[in-house]
Queue: 3 jobs
Job 1
Amino acid sequence: MEGLFSLLLLLLLSFVAVFFHLIRILFNSPVDFSMDWNLFLSWIPLIIAFFADNFTKRFGKIPVVLILLSVVWLAFFPNAPYMITDLAHLTVDYERDLTWHDVIMLFFYAEVSLFNGLVSLYWIHRSWRRIFNRVTSNSFLLASLPLAGFGVYLGRVRRMNSWDIIHDPQLILKNLLESAMDRTALVFSMEIGMLLGILYLVLWVIVRFRIRYNRKS
């Protein structure tokens, strides 16, 4: 299946991130297993996008199925860039060995999680392009970026998570309405969206250049 190599590579990187965490545990220091949980959550949109990409390639235009998959993907997509905000937990002590280990460890977790999100965005965008026209698919792409940032805000500041959509939709609605009027939430959403957009653009250019180069070869 297309994309299987990418999944295996990202899985290997995830194991490397966990290895950094195991080293931290060997120091007999307090650890936060929420990092591993957050990394796992970043895999959910990746798996959904992987399925959507292969489904649309094999079965063609079934827009209803893709829309349903896209909604579920969008609900979990913010979990990927969310780990960037875990860098806020760093405590700086330049003479402490664990400070530098924690910097590398948290950065690696955030990096792998972000990779998962960007690859999932590429796959779901490619699925949209197969089913919808260019304007519609690119509109979905542009809308998903600040929405992802808004989801990160809800998770970090409002302490919400994707599962609340199922077991506490009223609380989700309450936080949505309150956050929509919060300037910090809007600025945060746009900046995370801009960060994702720039990184995705780099990924897109690299992938498209590789495809064109292989065709010429």
Job 2
Amino acid sequence: MPPELASAGAEAHFRALESLYACAPINRFFESTLEIPEAGVARIRFTIDERHYHAGGAAHGTSYFKMLDDAAFYAANSLVTDRFLLTTAFNLLLTRPLKAGPVIAEGRWISGKRRVFVADARLIDAEGEEAARGTGTFMRSRIALAGLPGYRVSPRPLP
């Protein structure tokens, strides 16, 4: 396949994954946007506010986990065009409390291209400081991406 067609197919896959993310019901609770700029890389932009706080006045760990897991997951799934991946393990390191403001979750694929994938992610707060990082393992499921509501691959225009 010519590189320009492979690239167009990859771009369509990335946009379809972004659409899938936007349609996920959980994101009604965690307003956020996903961007996949290239294979193996994912960024999620979100804002922490007091709705995400625990009793101590900072973001609850569920916010950390959700965004780190999603960023690493989509970085890995950007390399898989036929199947939905599943998280099989995820380790977190919380290094700094998140307060109200914008946050970016950056995910990167590390290894694996067949059945099991490893990816990591980090949270960057409004000051540009790392607030957390995590590493996950993800495996191919039996769930076809094409059958999922929200995964929409736009047809390529004819030459």
Job 3
Amino acid sequence: MRLPPLVYLLGLVSFLMDVASEMVYPLLPLFLTGLGAGVSTLGLVEGVAEATASLFKVVGGRISDRLGRRKPLLLLGYGLPALLRPLLALAQSPLHVLLYRFLDRTGKGLRTAPRDALLAEGVPQGALGRAYGLHRGLDTLGATLGPLLAYLLLPHVGVRGVFWASAVPAGLAFLALFLVREPASRPPSSHLPPLRLRAMPPAYRRFLLLSGLFALALSSNAFLLLRLKDLGLSQEAVALAYTAYNLLYALLSYPLGSLADRLGLRRVVALGFFVYALVYLGFAWAESAPWGVASLLLYALYSAAFEGSSRAYLATLVPAEAKASAIGLYHTVVGVLLLPASLLFGLLWQAFGAEVAFGVGAGLALLALFLFLLDGKAKGAYPG
């Protein structure tokens, strides 16, 4: 079964935007500390950024369902971040970086649920794993190229020059979006029922609750990069290691998505929980830079197994009439919890060290895996 052109076009848009975003992201932790921020401030900035993105995901999904269209929210969600690069390039304090991250993640929040709903509506259910896997792969391929470009440009233009240069792929992503043709729209709904959990399928509610627990185990990837720096890697080597992580993630996404279509989405989601716990244990016990890099590369397996398959699995649990709203609610709940998760992680690191912070994250991931396996009778998903 061939995937429709829509999947490739949305993948192209995400590829270009991730080139722009990931040129910036690996440099932010060190840029922030250079502006006088501590580890706890880094946790605050990243927590606020991710929580903001997630809060706006349900907003974007709700507006999209009400309009009966997905593309207007995509144009807004990709266009806003494309205009914000100067704010970061001219930043003089951690507060400026926080403002940039807030506005940038607002755009991400508005576009995520409509984009995921558009993918789910344009692909047969039996190919959802491949579709989401391919999209995540193209998205992450951009995330691979971004840090590599940052690594190559950094010695010549400096950190702020890299931030300016990231405006080019961001603008191209917005322009590429005009190539996307949305399938026949549903009529606008001015009387969309209120979004209530009790009206959602039980399998969706259980997965939402379990995902909330797992979100408490998550911390910003910025902490992983900071851990590599603590283990002895230079700023350029950290950017290069992050490039390798994204490349492996991109290469594994489609094969693991295809595997999920054959073996069952639940099995691959469970694999993601397990590998995440192993990764955090690896970072907790790491005593050298190679050990840290190995843990980061294992993290790519988690990302490839979980990110696409969990989105595809979620798409099988939500009602068609409120698909974007339900997907947005899921992302919002998970993302809002990233704020306390990142704050807690930063405080644990600062008070007790990286070993304790990563160990707590691994323990919460194993608890989430246990509960997910216990709930093996969820309906509405692929067998297995």
